Every structure is written in C-alpha cells, then in structure tokens.
User: Fold 2,3-diaminopropionate biosynthesis protein SbnB from Chitinophaga solisilvae.
Amino acid sequence: MLYLNENDINQIGINWKEIIAVIHNACNTMAKEDFAQPVKPYLRYRNRKNRIIAMPGFLGGETELAGIKWIASFPDNLEKGIRRAHSVTILNDAGTGQPLSIINTPLISGIRTAAVSGLMLQLWLQQHGREPVKVGITGMGPIGRLHAGMLQTLLGEHLEVLKVYDIRPCGTVVNELPHPDKVHICYSWQEAFADADVFITCTVSDEPYINLPPKPCSLHLNVSLRDYDASWIRYADMIIVDDWEEVCRENTDIERMHLHYGLQQEHVYNIVSLAGGSYADLLKNAGAIMFNPMGMSVFDIAVAGHFVNEAKQNAVGTILD
Assistant:
C-alpha cells in the first residue's frame, strides 16, 4: 500500500488545469451513473460546532476506485494554533476491495474543493468570455489560499484584481501567492464584495452576514456555505449545487433558503448536468449565479487517484507492508 503525506503532495505539485479536468471527467462518469455515493454521516459530540465526517464513495470510468475520506473540522483549533481540518483518505481497488493507498493530509481535500470551484469558474468563463475579471475572496485560510492560487493560474492575464479579506492579518499569506502584485488586501468583506465579477466565501462562519445585492451577471462560489443571508435568494437568478440531498441540511444557506423561502430541488441546477453541456444557454443568459458545493466523495476519490498515479510515476511516497 502506498502512503502519501503533505510533503509528498507538495513534491508532486498542483497542476490546476489537470486536476480541474479530473473533476470534469468525474462529472461525465457520474452522468453515466457509474458511481456510488451514500449520504455522508456527521459524528458530533460535546461541542456541537465540531464534526468528523465519513465520506465513502465509488467512481468508475477513468478512475475505477472506491474509498473513503474521514475528515475532522474543529473551528476552535485556530485559536490553539492548530489546523481546523484534519483528514485521511483511503483508496481501494474497485474490483477486489484491496486497500491501495492512504493519504494523510487535509491538503488533498482542499485541492479538491478549489478544483470544483475551478470547474464552475471554467464553465462560467466559457459563456462570459475572457475579458478582465475582478475577484473577491473572504477568508484567507488554507482553502482561501488554494482558491487564490487556482484563480491566478486559471485566469492568468485575465485576472484584473484579486481582492481578499480576512478577520486576521493576511499580508504574509498574500506575499506567498504566485502574483502578489495583483492582490489587494481589503478591510471588510463589503470592500472585497463590491464590484466583484466572481466572489468566493472561504470562511468558517456559522452565521450568515452577506446581505448586499451582487454585481449584475456575477458568479458567487459559496464554498463555506453559511455566509449568505437566506433573503439573498431574491438576488440569485440561478442557483447551482453539487448534490441537493447533501447541501440542503446542516444549517447551510441552501437549507435556510429552503426552510424560509421555499427553495426546492426542482428550482436548482446541478454541476454534473452543467459540466455535460446542459443549460449552457441558461448559464450564459443568467444574471447573478450562486454555486453551493457541499463536497462530494466521488470528487475526493478522483483527485486522490490522480495524485496516487502521479506519485507512482514519480517514485514519490512510502510503500507500507
């Protein structure tokens, strides 16, 4: 069995275009119904804001792997100088069930998260052209930093400005980005939100606060899922999810929109259908678009499989008996 840790993943490196293609291929495989993905259980005890989530899944097609991600999220860890998230991913041979690899790092989960956002951004750009794009991000922790790196790679010279905001000082973080000269540090989320063509939430907020109207025809990647006031539904011309059953629970913005404003599954669109080309005209003609990704285990399996293949080709990692 191949063991990979964070140093191994960093040694392999992140090729965002390749990994976004992995997510796109996973969507195509899902469209053929060659996958299995049970609803993930949440383990909670004592402090209810903490959670450990089991994410099992199988993905056929080019991936042909089963596996599970076991991910813990303890927000108060940040005050202790400890990472909020910790995770382990195990991959199994789809035909025999034999364990093939264990990946011990939350980095793999963060890469998946940013790559899914990257696919949504790519689909949006295909319909909205490549004119200069203004991006805003609230939250510059590990997920925010990965998104910033992905955006700078995907947009390249078409990125006009990246406005970032965090409740903690983030100057050191910004200086570590590939192109810090294009990054502007804001002093409020409102400043980052204003005039953003693309706005991304990467916080650990458990209470909504975004209540301002968006820029017309903007894309909102609601990665942290609990930042938008439920009344924001009146601004969203198109709402996209990865999995309705997953995202309409756990006090997400989607669940609050469902409970307080009657949002139903038939009112939203799915990224799997969008990736396959469905609703392209609607995506082009929509005003403000809101994407809410709860996180799908099959995407974790696909991305983990990609890194295991890269590790084998480059002799990275440790073989365990």
User: Anything to note?
Assistant: The chain has eleven helices and 16 strands.
